[in-house]
C-alpha cells in the first residue's frame, strides 16, 4: 500500500533513502552495508525515518505555538505503543519507497523489524487504547500530548516452563531507544514527604513545605506521526533520577553504599511497570509513581501556559488546556493542579476549584470493584502531605455541596465522599472534580449510570456519557494485514484508511464471488504466516487448514478462558466416546499473561497446558483438535495472530468487560465473533445484525439479578447436566496430566463450592456452558459452508469502521475537549 500521490517522487526518495541508510551506517557504526549486523541495520533505517518525522515535529510545534490553540494532555500510566519502525514508515506514506530502497540494498524490512525492542509499557486494553488514541489524535491533527512514565522495565516477559507461567524481566532499553529524545530543559522537581507549615504572617496564607525528598523528573519525548498528515505529536514519558547522582560528601567519607542509596531510591520510581490489571494493591511505590508523573506533567502544563499566554490569567487555563485522565491512576493530577494554582499562583480556592473542574475529564475502564483505586489514608498523608490537605479540603467542600442537595442523607454522602474509613477513594475524587466522565461502550456507560456511579448520575445528570472505544486502522489493518489492506484498497480506493466509515462500501462485495475468493486467499496467507511463525519460534506444527479459533487477552476469571478450556475437554470426551463424532478440525489458540500474584489465573494457564497435553496424547483426538498456547502475548504477537484468526472468542461474563478492544481488531481483520452480549460486542451485534455474530449466554441484567438475589446455584447445573459433570470431574479424577493429583481441585472447588465465603462460580462459567457449546456447534456448521463463512467475514470487516479510534477521538473532541486541528501548510 502506498499513497499514489507520492508516486512521482518515488524514484528520488528511494535513492535518498539508500544513501541515507548507508551514510548512517558509516557515521554511527563505522560499518559498511555488508558488515552491518541486523540490529545496526535496524537502527540505521530507523534513524532515517526519525529524521523525516523530526521535520514534521518541528513544524507542528511551530504551527501550534503560532496558532495558540487549546491543547489536550492525555495522562496515562500506560502507553502500550508497540514497535514503531514499520508503523512510522506507513504513517509517513513511504512504505513503497522503503520497500524498493531496502530491496535494492538486499535488506528485508520484516527481518530487521525483529531487532526493534518492543516497548511493553502497558498491561492490556487501557494501555493499548492510549496508544491507538495517540495515533488518531496525530492523524486528525489535533493539538495533544500524551504523558506517562518511562518505565525501565515494561511488562514482564512470559515464559512457559512445564506448563506454568514464569516471569522474566523486560529490559527493553538495554540497547538504547532510537525514537526518544530527552528534553533536559523541561526537567521538573517532584517533592515527597516532609512537613507543611501554614504561615499567615503576611495576612495571606503561605504554605511552607520542608524536609521533603526531591526526585527529578526527566522527560523523554517520542514523536507520534499521524497517517498521511503533516502533524507529529509528542508522547512525553518521565524518567526519575536523583537530584545528585552521587552524594559526594558521603562518597569522600568512604560511605559509598549510602552515597549510591539515595540515587537508587529515586530511580526505582520509574524502574518497573506494575503487572496488575483489574486489581489494585495499596503499594507505596505505585502511589509514588502516580504522583511523580502527574506532578511533573502538571508543572509542565502550567509552565507552558504561562510561556505561551503571558497575558492570560490562570483563571482561564481551561480555555487553552484540556486534561484527560485515563482511569483514576493519574487522578492525583487534580489536587496537584489545585496545589500549584493555590500555593504558587495565588488563586483563590473558588477560582482554583472552577478552573480545575473545567480542565479535567475522566474515563472509567472497569466496573470490577477490586480494581477501584483506594489508598490508605496514612500512607497518602505521609507521602504527600500537601496533596492530602488539599484532597481533604476538596472532600469537605464536595460533601458540603452534597449536603445541600441531600440534606441529612448521611449514608449517601459518606458513600460519595472522597475520604472515608481511612481511605482515599480515587474514583470519587475523579467523579467530583471532572466536568465529564465516560464509559468505554454504551453498555458500560449504562452500568456506570444505573449502578456503580448512580448517585453521581442523579446529582449531575449530563456528566456521565458513553463513548465507545476504537482501534487504529493503521496498526491493526495497514501494518498488521498488508494483504487485506491491498485487497480493500483495490476494491474501494485508499480513503478508508483515514475515513473508516467507507469500509461499508465493502458490503456489496460480500456477494461477489471473485472478491470473496481473494478475501479467503488473504486469510489463508495470514494463517500460513502464523503457522510459520509458530513453527520457527516454538517448533510446533499446526494445520493451516483447520479452523483458527483465538482467545488473546489478559488472563482473568471474568474473561473466562476457563469456559473455553472446559469446552475443549467436552469435545475431547465426545471424540473419545465416538471417534467419528461430527467435529470440525480446529486449532485453539490462547495467548494471555496472568498477573504474577493472581494464583487462580496462573492455575488456568496450567489447566490450558494440561488440556493441550491431553489432546496431543490421543491419536484420534489430535487428528481433530489442537491447543496452542502462545507465550508472551504482546503487540507484535497480536499483529501476527489477529490477521490469521477466523473465530474471535469474546466470552466474558456479561456486564464485566467494559468494552474490549481485541474484539474490534479481530472483526476488522475478518474474524467472526463468538461472544456474550458484553462491552462493545453489543454494538458489534447491532451494527452487523445478529446473524453475523454468534451470541450466546446470559445478558448483563440477568447476571446482575442472579447474583444480587442469590438465584444462582452452580451445583444444581453440575447435578443436572451430565456432559458438564463429566467435564468438571476431569479436573479432579486424574484424567488430566498434572504434577500432583489435586492440581486442579482449586478450580473445581471454586466452580462448585466457592471459597472464602464467596459464592460458587461467580462468573457463571457453568451457567453459560451449555449455550456456549451450542453456539460452538453453530460455528462449525457455518464454517463448513466456506462461502457462507466468507460472506459473513467480509461483512465483519465492512462493518468495522465504527470501531476506528478516529471516530472515538472525534466523539471525545466534540463532547469533551473541543480542540481545533492544527493548520499545517502543505508544501
Ligand atoms: C490498579 C490496577 C489496575 C490496572 C489496570 C486496575 C485497572 C486497570 C485497567 C482499568 C484495566 C483495563 O485495561 N481495562 C480495560 O480497558 C479497556 C480499554 O477501555 C477495555 O476495552 C477493557 O474492557 C477493560 O478491561
Describe the SSE topology.
Blueprint (H helix, E strand, L loop, with lengths): L9 H20 L8 H30 L3 E5 L9 H7 L3 H11 L3 H5 L11 H15 L4 E6 L7 E5 L2 E5 L12 E2 L5 E5 L2 E5 L6 E5 L2 E13 L6 E10 L6 H5 L3 H12 L16 H25 L8 H4 E6 L6 H12 L4 H11 E4 L10 E3 H7 L1 H21 L4 H7 L2 E2 L2 E3 H8 L2 E4 L2 H11 L1 H6 L4 E3 L6 H7 L2 H11 L20 H26 L8 E6 L8 H17 L8 E6 L7 H19 L7 E5 L5 H7 L5 E4 L11 H7 L3 E4 L5 H8 L5 E2 L4 H9 L5 H7 L1 H8 L15 H8 L16 H16 L1 H13 L6 H13 L10
Parallel strand pairs: 1-2, 1-11, 2-10, 11-12, 12-16, 16-17, 18-19, 18-21, 19-20, 21-22, 22-23
Antiparallel strand pairs: 3-4, 5-9, 6-9, 7-8, 9-10, 13-15, 14-15
Helix pairs in contact: 1-2, 1-4, 3-19, 6-33, 9-11, 11-12, 11-14, 13-14, 20-21, 21-32, 22-23, 22-29, 28-29
The site of ligand 26W has 23 residues, from helix 6.
Task: Give an overview in words.
By secondary structure, this protein is of the alpha/beta class. It has three domains: 9-67 and 89-117, no CATH class; 68-83 and 118-469 and 811-817, Rossmann fold (3-Layer(aba) Sandwich); 473-697 and 780-798, Glycogen Phosphorylase B (Rossmann fold), CATH 3.40.50. Strands 1, 2, 5, 6, 9, 10, 11, 12, 16 and 17 form a ten-stranded mixed sheet that branches. Helix 26 links the parallel strand 22 (672-675) and strand 23. Bound molecules: ligand 26W.
